[in-house]
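Still learning. Any example?
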Amino acid sequence: MPVQDPPLGAPARADAAPAADRARERLLDAVALAMVAAVFALPLRGLLRAQGPPMEEGFMLVFPELVLEGKVPNVDFLHLYGPGSLWALAAVYKVFGVSLLTERLFGLAQQMAVVFGIFLLARPWGRRLAVSCALVSALCIVPFGLTALAWVGAVGLALVGLAAVCAGRSVPDGRAARRRVLLGGVALGAALTFRLDLVVAVGLATVASLPGLAPRERNRLLGGIALGVSPYLVHVAMAGPRNVVEGMVLDPVFRLRGGRSLPVPPNWTSPDGFLERAGALEQLAWPLPEPSTAKQLFLGFFLLLGVVALSLVVAVRAVRSEPSSHRARVLLVVSLFGAGLLPQALQRVDSAHFQWVGCVPIGFLPVVLFEIARRRAPGVARGRLALASGAAVLALMVFVVPNFTVRRYADYSAQTFGYHRTAHRIEHEGRIFYYGKADRAQAAARVVAATARITRPGDRLFVGPVDLRRTPYSDAYLYHLLGDLEPATYYIEMDPGVANAPGSGLAEDLASADVAILSAIWEDWDEPNDSREVGSSEAAEVLARDFCLVDTFGDLYQLWRRCA
């Protein structure tokens, strides 16, 4: 087993330290954790009252509720990821009720798992670096809102699992080591039930953690992973192998990519992503010099690639020079895990995907810089090097990519105290959602109220775009607001090249609906990919044949009902 490196500035053996020193260490650890918690507390009120992504947050409100009603992912509705996040959120909804607040607090817990996982993994380098890494990781992921996305939950579970495995490597008690390694393995396996595409990152990190483990600990780790991933057997039994492969492999990997991918590298002059352009319209004023949004995307892309490469080089050299070092092994595990996340950033090169990946390698960058600095400047106090490493990464965020990190964080923090609030509340029968533009929120409230007047509980609702031949996005949150109506379509999440493909079943779904709400908000969707292509006209023909227009609302929404 690798030798445990003593924490920087701490006694070599904690059990040999006086009781007063141990109490002081615990107090300082508590202070460090409180500092990390404060990073979440400051923008929390603003985040809870901000607009979320209408489709992604909409389906994370709707899908788990459908699960509670007995519906099965990939049978009754398309879900491109593992069932774990839906099952977990459904359990939370069962206890606390289905609401935007519950969903966002669950999303907050997922983000905290990511950040505290980074903190625990960086803790062997001392509290200063651990807090610096946690702060950087939080600035990567918190600004993208509290939507309870499966990716964030998967990364959080995996980081907590890796922290448990690495902790198990360092304890002398064999029983305690096996227990921690087992629990870490379960968390790693559970992460794969949230997102199957995390398998590369989890696999690389697991392989890196095996050297130095005793055979019984290796077996516990691998057995824990198998136990954590075993719920897939339940999902396959419920949904059927064909439906699982279609919904979780063929649709996201082969059919969807053409309609969601963006050019690599990003455009230097203007953002390619539609949501990227829309989200930049109402940003908080920033007093410091900064590159344009497009240039920040371009620089952020190469920054992420460079950080991953640098981390791997430093980690491999550290393991070669100090094979028995616990810190070197942890650095290699985290670096390989971060490298395994890169496909998520490359599949769609926009700021959200960069930050969902960057929260790990960029979050751990202070440790990497510290490892470089301590070898280049052995005479400098390690505490100073730790502070300088953290400050250098924060400077990158402030001056190179502020729009996606510190600027958004400052915006939500200001909204906590009532400044620069741009979200408008939409409410129906106790269910709420927030929209960033007043005219759209007002039109949505009116179409929801009109739909409620002409329907009865149990009627079937279809939500889609005005032009049903193009399905780039969906206002799926409307299903949540009209929770007493049944979704009429498998494609609650609308994806180009999937929902509008010939023979997709979208037309049959619409034909089964009692009412349809069609949105014109996404009509000007324009990205350099296959989302611009016109698909099947089958659903549009059903609309013209079977439905009558009830009303339009601000030229943003249309309400249709089945003709008598």
Q: What stands out?
A: The chain has 23 helices and seven strands. The first strand starts at residue 424 and ends at 428. The mean pLDDT is 94. Residues 351 and 404 are 7 Å apart (CA to CA).
